[in-house]
Amino acid sequence: MNQLAIIIPYYKIDFFEETLKSVAAQTNQNFTLYIGNDASPNNPLPIIDKYFEKNNYHYFEYKSNIGGQNLALQWERILENVQEEWVQILGDDDCISPDFVEEFYKILPAVQKNGITLIKCGQQWIDENNNHLESHIYNFDKVSAAEIFIKKYKVEIRSSLSENIYQTKIVKKQKFVKLPLAWGTDDLSLLDFSKNGYIQYIPKLLVSVRISAESISGSDQYEKLKKQAIHQLQERISCQFSDKLPDRFVEETIENYLSTSYYENSKVNIKVAFYYLKKFQIKQFLKAARKVYYINKKAQ
Q1: pLDDT 10s digits, 122-165
Q2: Rounded CA gap, 180 and 70, in Å?
Q3: Which residues touch 193 (CB under 8 Å, ≥6 apart)?
Q4: Total-model pTM
Q5: Where are the domains of the chain?
Q6: Which CATH superfamily is domain 4-210 in?
Q7: Which residue in 287, 260, 139, 114 sits closest to 199, CA to CA?
Q8: Residues in contact with 59: Cβ distance below 8 Å, sequence separation at least 6, in sequence order
Q9: Which of 78, 249, 251, 282 is most buried (most C-beta within 10 Å)?
Q10: Is-contact 66 77, C-beta < 8 A?
Q11: HSE value, Cβ hemisphere, 13 Å, CA-based, for 207
């Protein structure tokens, strides 16, 4: 049985063929391909059948669009069918290098020996014409999930969903955190799905992330939803993931969350203040609770 599943949540046809071509071109074919059609207006089967025999992939044509509610729901819907131990969720406009699967199997014994449950790949940006824009390769090896998360949060590194290879059973059990546009969902997954707090970084496992007017990353039309997602991400850091991150970073996040909420008239979750109570910082708890009260009163 193959140990790697590659999931493609399909909706947009624009660059889908380029994605499929990169998967079909793998030097090591020991992977299982899953494609989930999220009620797209464009039938992908002619393209799929151009590169894969019928018995070489699993195709699911869903009648209802669920990615419009939240992209992570579509990922999980396809994921229910996966039997392989490891899974990559590849964007329908992203590509992988020809030796991607081959390099995965080379590193797998060391990953299993060290109890690693999440692998992160190297990234490069490409445009609509497959031209190389930027490379984002880092000098990591075995690195803490908290370190990568903080660096991404502070925009010191680049990271996206397509570069993550998860241990399937953990993702199935814990599920993805749902944020608007799933913006930041992949970042929280680094903290949530790295069982021992460490990630194996493999720059040779190269993913090409497409930056275009059609992508969420490359488009300006989603700015309002991105702001909402960042607001919710900060709340999750404070309320749900504070035990996985350094205290100073969490406290800075809380202050930023409260400050941004005040100026944008956004309601805040009182639970963020309880972070200080857990740390027995009574004065800080009372101060934060007062801020929450006045911010929510102002936002009414």
Answers
A1: 999 999 999 999 999 998 889 999 999 999 999 999 999 999 99
A2: 7
A3: 117, 118, 166, 167, 170, 171, 174
A4: 0.93
A5: 4-210, 223-298
A6: Spore Coat Polysaccharide Biosynthesis Protein SpsA; Chain A (3.90.550.10)
A7: 114
A8: 35, 37, 45, 48
A9: 78
A10: yes
A11: 27
